[in-house]
Every structure is written in structure tokens, then in C-alpha cells.
Amino acid sequence: MSAHGYIIGADGGGSKTAMLLAHTDGSEVARLTAGASNPTDLGIENSASFLTETAARLCAENGVAPEQVRAVFLGVAGGSHEGFCALTNEKLHRLFPNAKTAVSHDAVNIVYAAFPEEDGAAVICGTGCSCYVRKGDVLHRIGGYSIFDVAGNGYEIGKRAVSHALACVDGRAEPDALYALVRDYTGEDLLDALPRLLRSSKTEIARYAPLVFEAERRGSAAAGIILRENIARIAEYINAAARYFDASFPAAIAGGIFRDARAMELLLPMLRCDCRVSVLTREPVCGAAEKARRLLTNG
């Protein structure tokens, strides 16, 4: 056991929760993967209890007494709700009496995973899209305002792909490679599939996004328009982030659409600022653990 104690970081979402136990120097001890923890889906009380119980299990499975834990940070999708943060912190304090604790949204995990030791801009483009600029321990938000700011993510790209395919079915657009790929992926007549598609989650609709990249490669003009309009929103965020920096700055992008190299090819010519862009490869839960470690020195 560590003579200097332990820290816990968690990355909670709508499908799963990753939790990491580490020594206070950041060296990893163990990980645990559990179920969903988004308070929007589970409710504030259920989510707070689930996260606290999961942290307790992580410690118990690794022979760590709660009194040895020095800091806990939980970055949870939907975790900005003031009531959720207060309740979860209260439960954490009861479980870990010697720990500094903090609860926030999961974007914090991405920022600290991308920039553990420096300032920078992190763009998160999964089923939504937003940008957070880290300056010291202060985060500045750019975009991602729910229904008022919808572009730049896998869900929007996938949704537009389905919309285009439906337009091809009813004669508003000419059938092309994108229509064929969407039809084949759906596995049935698109109008017959419409009730199922309308019930689909954002994650399920986002699975259509890779088809748009493939359709563009096959010559679909509609696919090219969809991609350029959505990638332009990401470029807009990074360009706006430049006002926080006096010189060249790093920008990291987290999101499935950048698994396709074409996304970066489209993005780079749209940037009007001096920045170094990369795709995030470090896991968000590592950023949560880094933020927990920072609590020891920065409060």
C-alpha cells in the first residue's frame, strides 16, 4: 500500500463509467469499468449513489481503505447540474473523509487528458460538439449550446446522411452513393425503417457518420457538403480559441469522426490561426485522474 495515499478519477457517461485508482504521484494502480452514470438518465440520487458505490468497490477490490484516498474527481456527462454536484460531493466526503473532492462535466476529463501540463484547446465532437480552452486551471467554453449549436459532430453528420437518403426516396434528391450506403446499412426500406430511426439514440444515429466519409470517396457531392459544413464548425471553434493565446497553441480533438483521416484533411485548410492540431489518443479517465491529482495542490 502507498504511504502517501491514493487518488481516484472517473469518466462517467450514458453507456459506461471508467474509474481509475492511482497513487498520488499519478502512477496507476487499477481500473474498473461499470455501467452508465449520467444523472440526466439515472436521476441525481441514483447517479450519485452509483458513482460513490463504484468508488468504494474500486478501493475494496484493491485493498485500499477509504481513509487513504486523498483526492477524487468525477467528470460525468450531464454532471454540471448544481444539485447533482452538491449531493455527489456530500456522499464522497462521507465515504472518503480525508479526500478533496470535485464533481463536474466530462469535458474536464478530455481537457486534462489532452493537456496535463500545458494550456491548450480541446474540441469534443461525439454526439455533440464543444470546445474548452484551458488557461492554468480555468476552463473557457466555446460553443456546444445544445439545440442552438448542433453542427460538428457524428450525430449531426449521421442525421444529415439519413435525411439525404430519405430525400432520395421521395424524389427531392437524386439517389447516389450516400443513399445506397445508408439504405444498405439500415437493412430495410427507409420509409419502413422510419419509426425505428425516429426512436434511435444519438449514438445509434452517429453510427451513420462513417458512411458519409465513404460516400464522399465514392463521389457523392451531398456527402462532401455534409462533411465540409460540419468540419467548418470545428474549425470555427479552434479559430475562436486563438484569442486566448499570444502565440502558437496546441489543439486536441476527441471524437470518432476523426478516426477517418479525411476529417483532418478537411479541417487544416479551414484554420486561420497558428496552432498545432492532433487527435487525442489518451483515455479521458486519465484526464480525470490528472484533475484529481491537481486537487491536492490547487484545491
Produce a short descriptive summary.
The chain is 46% helix and 21% strand. The protein contains twelve helices and ten strands.
Report the structural category: alpha/beta
Which band does the percent of strand residues land in? 15-25%
Largest sheet: 5 strands, mixed
- The overall strand count is 10
Distance between the termini: 25 Å
Radius of gyration: 21 Å
Query: Please, what is the average pLDDT?
Result: 94
User: What's the structural domain tally?
Assistant: 2
Protein model, in words:
With 299 residues, the protein is of the alpha/beta class. 46% of the residues lie in helices and 21% in strands. Strands 3-2-1-4-5 form a five-stranded mixed sheet, sandwiched between helices. It has a five-stranded mixed sheet with strand order 8-7-6-9-10, with helices on both faces. Helix 5 (154-169) runs antiparallel to helix 10 (221-241), helix 6 (177-186) runs antiparallel to helix 9 (209-217) and helix 9 (209-217) crosses helix 10 (221-241). The mean pLDDT is 94.
